Amino acid sequence: MKLGVFLSEYRTDTGIIERLSPEKLGIILVGNGVYHAAIKEKGQPSPVLNLKADFYVLKEDLETRGLNTSNLDSRVKPVNYGDVVDLIFNEYEKLIWM
Amino acid sequence: MGTLSIGIFSALVGSMNYDFALKLADAALQKGHKVNLWFSGNASGSPKKNQKHLKDYSHGETPLRKLIEKGLEVCTCEACSLARGIQKPDSIEGVQWNAMHWYLAKIHGSDRVLHIGGE
User: Fold this and answer.
1) Partner residue facing A97 (CB), from B23, B111, B115
2) Which long-range contacts does B64-69 make (Cβ < 8 Å, 24+ apart)?
3) Of B15, B27, B45, B107, which has fewest CB within 10 angstroms of its CB?
4) CATH 3.20.20.70 fits domain A2-97
């Protein structure tokens, strides 16, 4: 299964995602989830980014929080709403919201 | 082109999830996809018409009306809306009122489903 996960919270237990074993995993960071893409704690990036997945961040939600693409971890690709639609229909068969 | 069904439980005010759902629906419609939107839980308060558009405050009526004009099919959970004191004559024109089976039928006929839970 090709699974797309919308991560909308910053404080998220990655255990749930780690227990999923899709053939392809995409994590789309939206809402407060965008902090995973741009914030380091004690010099370390979010552990979410250590998951074996393709990462995307909704640029609008990033900028709403005073961040921009120069703050992004190199593993994360900025996307707009149109890109998210394409990811939904072209890249992932099932979607979950966390 | 495909069909996307979005279920939203979050309230218009107090959560950005509702805003996300409407913007995603708009983007999908612009790309020619069909979009179904289901309001349940606190989202079922959002079909109320005559919402005052206060500055810097969540406002759902205008964008929802525009999406309906673009072809969005939207339905609110009747029981959820009635429980919040919203009567059908008070709701935005074009919003359907039905029960969970509406959402289940749309899911069954969709290529993709995104279910956004409540707060």
Assistant:
1) B115
2) B64/B22, B64/B92, B64/B95, B65/B92, B65/B94, B66/B26, B67/B22, B67/B25, B67/B26, B67/B29, B67/B35, B67/B37, B68/B92, B68/B93, B68/B94, B68/B95
3) B107
4) no
